[in-house]
Amino acid sequence: MTSADGFRLYSGDGSTVSQRAMELPLLDSPGSLDDPSGYLAEEGLRDAVNVALALGQPLLLTGEPGTGKTQLAASVAHELGLPAPFVFNTKSTASARDLFYQYDALRHFHDAQFRPGETSAAHYVTYEALGLAILLAMDPAAVQDLLPEPLRARGPARSVVLIDEVDKAPRDLPNDVLNEIEDMTFTVRETGRRFAADRRYRPILILTSNSEKTLPDAFLRRCVFYHLTFPSRERLIQIVQRRLAATSRLSPAMVEHAVRHFEKIRELGLRKRPSTAEFLAWLRVLDRLQIDLSDPKPGQREAIAFTYSILAKSQEDLRYLQEQLTA
């Protein structure tokens, strides 16, 4: 199998390829799609961000996976001239303390057996996303020794913190951090030391949720809420122009045909409808193979069917897609 520009692709039959074929250039780095300068926020989302900034409250985002919830934090940091966000990836076992710091009790206990009286609990504390942001919002002289080396020259400074998929956490976690998030303070229980952010450098907190669990009312009352809807056809085209225009060889007509084809796929009633992120990945492959969905070249219909594996996430969905759209 050969790509549009003459590079041989993987054949799967055990045959070897020339060195030129081995040099098949990669698609532009997946990270390029996450470039915050290319993020396109809808008007309602822009307003929600500005309300959260004005009130100093967390912004809670819901919406389908792949609609850009996680990427918003990087976009906000980029536009406000701040460093990349601190990120806390929520786990089902997370506790309130985990947002701020970790304490290695086992190592502390082990060391205490061999060096009694010489080990302070403070030496076994490492600070996590929200804890680091609060430390950076304080007088550097007071917290310099607590920060990792790369951060010591940054403060006092404002930071963006992303708590991703907060709905994965145990239900008690949001209620357990109400006061800490409202005041941007926390206490290390093992040392008794309390930290509080300077209000001038209050961290910007963005939380995402896939709505797998209902969050407590008391927590919701303290958040600015916004639900990201799936982009319209016009917005999808705008997103493509922002994300792929610099590297894509697809014509505007080819992009529009791809968007229409994608909309048809989402209307088929798949178990999991493909997201914006998956659409962009699929479009990059169409671009790489130079496939015009409105007028496929001989042999390209089979290639189109193969590309559906980017959009379908189960065997049943993939088979259904191929049956419905390549007949």
Kindly describe this structure.
The protein is α/β, with parallel strands linked by helices and 327 residues long. It folds into two domains: 43-228, P-loop containing nucleotide triphosphate hydrolases (Rossmann fold, 3-Layer(aba) Sandwich), CATH 3.40.50.300; 231-325. The chain is 38% helix and 12% strand. The strands form three sheets. It has a five-stranded parallel β-sheet with strand order 2-5-8-1-9, sandwiched between helices. It has a two-stranded antiparallel sheet with strand order 3-4. A hairpin with a 4-residue loop joins β6 (185-188) and β7. α10 packs across α11 (252-266). The radius of gyration is 24 Å and the shape is elongated.
Layout of strands and helices, then pairs:
Blueprint: H1 19-22, H2 43-55, E1 59-63, H3 69-79, E2 86-89, E3 101-103, H4 105-114, E4 125-127, H5 129-136, H6 140-143, E5 160-164, H7 172-176, H8 178-183, E6 185-188, E7 193-196, E8 204-209, H9 217-220, E9 224-228, H10 233-244, H11 252-266, H12 276-289, H13 300-307, H14 315-325
Helix pairs in contact: 10-11
